[in-house]
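Reopening this one. Same input as before:
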Amino acid sequence: SPQGIKKLMETRSMYVALDQEKIVGTVSLKENFISALFVDPSQFFSGIGKKLMSYAEQESKLLGHNECSLTSTLNAIDFYERIGYTQIEKIPDEKYGTTIKMHKML
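Same output, byte for byte:
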């Protein structure tokens, strides 16, 4: 919801990818923790997710961090590994099932 997004923006930076004036992707960053990567399914395999991740990583580096971390759902692990993330540990999650903590040196 717009209210939920506004609340999240108070605690982290959020970046969006636009196609014309339509939001086709988002990602959030809090220090060196990346979350809420979303790409419109019609834009899968277009490079938007990779560009959003790269931007978030660059912003984290500007904040003085030399690594980023994230928590991945099982279906996104391959994507994150392709862009340089490695698995650290499995984490049980009541909402998402098993998730995987991952990190990448910048």
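So the earlier flakiness isn't reproducible anymore. For the record, The chain has a mean pLDDT of 93.
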